[in-house]
Amino acid sequence: QQQVKQSPQSLIVQKGGISIINCAYENTAFDYFPWYQQFPGKGPALLIAIRPDVSEKKEGRFTISFNKSAKQFSLHIMDSQPGDSATYFCAATFGNRDDKIIFGKGTRLHILP
Amino acid sequence: GAVVSQHPSRVICKSGTSVKIECRSLDFQATTMFWYRQFPKQSLMLMATSNEGSKATYEQGVEKDKFLINHASLTLSTLTVTSAHPEDSSFYICSAREWDSYNEQFFGPGTRLTVL
Questions:
Q1: How far away is chain A from the Cα of B17, in angstroms, using its nearest Cα?
Q2: A interface mutation test: which of B24, B34, B44, B50 has the most A CBs within 10 A?
Q3: CA–CA separation, B69 vs B51, rounded Å?
């Protein structure tokens, strides 16, 4: 019940295309869903996050779509660029508590130039 | 923005020695810091949670006597890998939570530990 399931494990997208990564969760008590971007040899960095009271959040080329009833959320990267090539982790946490972040297993995204 | 640093970025040591890794929050006070380890092509695995001035809480399966965590101030936490062995070789990442944030954690750049 604490898991966050992420797919696909790896993804190859042409430059300019849309990259889509999906995640699902079980625990309805989660109330904060961040996405992290990690480049090789670096720590993860917060990319964008959403709370379950909204269905979509957009920041530049990055959009989170959130489906509370289905307990699913996804990251869309529009106009994907080679510089977006990285590993992306979805996550869930309870928010406002010193509680741990539950990470998905990650998606290795490669954007073809 | 909130910045977390780690030192050293890379360390190579001989088997049996101890290694200390520092994690600092540079521009905010962190009441809680987290330590993770990450193996190649895998997700982050939480090792322990530390609160300033109190003992760390270790995740199941993590040896607290081997991975010593100290959170002596609101800006510094240290992880000491004692009697390191080759299987301890990994990428260690810390994160810090600001005292009034919603539980957003800011991650350090990581420390690559190689035990020979």
A1: 24
A2: B44
A3: 10
